[in-house]
Each structure stands twice: as C-alpha cells, then as structure tokens.
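Hi! If you just cloned this repository, the fastest way to understand the data is to look at a raw example. We've pasted two of them here, unedited. The first protein comes first, obviously.
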Amino acid sequence: MPNPIKRGNSWQVKIRRKGRDGILEKVNETFDTHAEAQRFIELKLGASARHERMSRDKEANTSLRMLLDRYEQEVVDPKPAKPRAQQRSIMTKWRNSGLADHSLLALEPELFGRWRDKQTKAGAAGSTVAN
C-alpha cells in the first residue's frame, strides 16, 4: 500500500497498479494534510478492489451460452441472410458443444483442449475443430 510522502507543505500520493488488462494505472495527487492523502489512498484502492470483485462476480454469473445469445442478437441478426445462416450454424455447434453452460471464469485452456481432443477422437477434421 502506498504511503503519502511529505513535499514541502503538502503530501503527495503516487499509486502505480497493473490492472487485469495489463495496463499500468498511474495516479499522482497532492493534498494539504496527511489525513486527506491517507483517505484518498483508501478510497482509490478500495474502489479498485470493489470494481475487480464486481467484475469477477459478473464473469462468474455469465455463461458462454449467455454470451453467444447476446452476440447472436446484437451482431448476427442484423446480417444478411446467407452470412447470418452460416454464423448461426457455428453458434449452434458451440451451444451444443458442452462448453456453453460453463461460466466465463471456468473457461480455461485445458477445457478447450479436452473438447478439441474429444472432437478429433470422434473423427472431426482438424479444420472443423479449429473453426
């Protein structure tokens, strides 16, 4: 946790944090009192922790099926008939894949690897599995 640094008659706070997206967040603020600087640190870091927790809760409560449904409504439906039919075919395969009911947090590379291996073992062509 960062500590306020005395700079002349004021207190400076420097916060450097790497977010989940890998982007470094830099915050520099100056305050008249040590107490104000300390409150800012607590508010800033507390807000970040709450945002991360809310984001993870949302991911935990969202399934791949829900994402596919939303994608179909927002992206696929407005397309012309032929591309829409092709995309719906692909989306149907994903919905029937056994992966669709997993939460976004549960979707890990090993899960996709097992799915790929199962498809290959069942005789699906490599290009079919890759699509």
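Ok, and the second one:
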Amino acid sequence: MYNLVDLSGKRILVAGASSGIGRQTAITLSKLGAELILVSRREDELNKVCFLLEGERHSIYCFDLSQLEKIELLVKTIVNERGTLDGLVYSAGVSWELPLRVDSPKKMKDAFDINYFGFVEIVKCISKKGRFNTGMRIVGISSTAAFCGDAALSTYSATKAAMNGAVRCMSRELSGKGICVNTIAPAMTETVMYDNYINEVGEKSASECELLKRQYLGIGKPQDMANAIAFLISPAARFITGICLPVDGGYTSC
C-alpha cells in the first residue's frame, strides 16, 4: 500500500511540544515513523507527551525559546547528541489579548521574542552546514490573525504576520540548501486558548455564533493542524515552499 506521508527514519524537532498543536503534532509524526526531539519549557509535560509517542529513540530538551542568545547552544547540543535534523516544527508561542490601552513596548517585545525572534533564530541555527540532512523541511505555526484583524490582537497579529513575511524570504535564501520553509495558519482550534475564550464569553454566546458563521466548518481540532503539518514536513511536499497554508474551516474564504 502506498503511503503518501512516510516519515520513517526522519528526525524532527518540535518546538513547543508540551501542549496544543505542538503536542498533537508530535504524536501524529511519531505514528508516521518519525524520531521526535521535543522542546518546551515544561519538562513534566514533555515527559507526558513522550510517553504517548509511538516508536523509540525520542528525546526531550527542557528549554525556554525566548532565551534567544542560548538557542545556538541548544541546537548544537541536540545535533551532537541526536544527529542531524530532517525537520523543524515551530509551535512555540504566546497568544495574549492585549488591548492598546494596556499594551506596552515590554509586552510587545516579550511576544515577539517567542513568536517571531525565537523562530528566526532556531531556523538560522538549524540551517547551518552539518546540522541538517538533504531535504530539510521547516513548518512554523502562524495564525489567521496574520490576515484578519480583531480587537486586542494587534501585537499577536503582528508577530504572526512577521513570521509569514520572514518565511517568504527564507524560502528563497535557503532554497540553495534544499530546505523548504512554510507556515500553516490555524483559525480557532480546540486548545487552551479556545477553552479560555469559552470561559470568558460563554458557550453558545453571540461571539461564538458569529465566529461560526465565518468559520463554517466548525471549531478545528489539533489533529486537523497536525495532519497539515505532517504533509508539509514530509518528502511529499518537496515542491512547496514560501507559503502560508490556511487550515481554518473556511475562515479566510469569507
């Protein structure tokens, strides 16, 4: 039987693997044969995720990706201990709602450090000679917020739009190394962020009903995002680079 997405023997780093989309992506990629390297700040949660993975030789690294100056050492350590990489999924990030009246340069910098600068830095470090294998694939988790505005999301939206803009440039710069770089843009998905939203506005509220008019396939699941990531991180996507793929239940079609 032909398997379009086969990750057997692929060594893939998942940054932000302790929860949400990153957690489900790690589980899904392991079922497709990949060897996973899980990175997150929360070691206890990483251990829980690692227990759910299929296969062997998976590893965890407890690290705060907002510590930009230490990412080089992290990547060097991972490659020395685990070997050269075939893929990177960057799912680390924060999703604060910050109205303009309470936003500040410090809060904006904190959001950019993890959502954008951490992504750029780890891509830079991983794409150095001797750290990746031929056919390297990189997928960042962006958001429909990069395209569609909403109140209190100016900083968050800006970080995701920055990621998409950088990927368009990275794809050209890294193409000579045979590296493909893309993002996906989830809409509202059943993660902690969605749970917080429901707790704040109430289930079946006017706000949720309005959201579902636009996101007409319903609320997404982490598995929906993981499936798209699995394709883009696989050899099957060898001719796709520099794009942002909406995985949004129709949200951006309206």
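That's it. A detail worth noticing about the second one: The helical segments are 20-31, 43-52, 71-82, 105-126, 154-174, 192-201, 206-214, 222-232.
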